[in-house]
Amino acid sequence: MPAGRRRRPRRPPAAVAPIAVPSKRALPPPPDLPISPDPPPWTRGAPCVTPRLQSVDALRAHALRDAPEGLESALMVCSVRLPRKNWEGYNWDILRGAPDPMARLRIDERDHGYSCASNTYSASLSWPGVDLSPGAPIQIDVFDEDLRDHDFVGDARVSFDGALSFALSSPRFEGSCSAIPRAAVEALLPDRIDDARLAILVQSEAQRLDPTAPRWGFSDALDDRTRAAVSEVAGHVGWDDPRGRGGG
Taking phi first (over 0 means left), then psi (-120 to 50 degrees means alpha), and beta for anything else, what does residue 60 get? Predict the structure, then answer.
């Protein structure tokens, strides 16, 4: 620095205001949240459009033992357990990883789509909006999901006799299913909707476009958290219900 020139004092960095996370109870109704007419774009082009619940264990306590007259718009929850080796005695994955179970549910000729899990020998899978009537045939086809071709594992078939908890019989996998009535699902739904609204609000407040930041300031963690919260709502009622597409 030349003699006689004074050094300018550095300005302190601007303080960044913390993000205030409101209480779920204090959240106002979302006035202008758009309701998509279709499932979210991250589900398009994938076989597993059916939203899979993360809170399956909490719902099992609400499963009924039997319903002789059937159920409407129930939530079907199935556990699928695969052996350590496939039916040919080989590892499921070329890198010796666990399989990626993918199951398709069909009841009385109605296709409820695929529910999927990743890298596990024991998966809890679910399908919302299931109608069960006496004598209805139930079929579950199980696959090991791959990038291109999905390996067929086996299927299980049963006729609905009023029992809402039943075993799946197949030589290539083990499993069982339970049905949760719509009333129990609706009772748990408000908290799930609040979680989704809070996740959307936090993400919208936290993310600001910044061309100098990695990924322009957008957070993968926040994005994943919001997707999971929205999918959890849809996992209770399905994408056809407006509450599963952004509606409160």
Answer: alpha
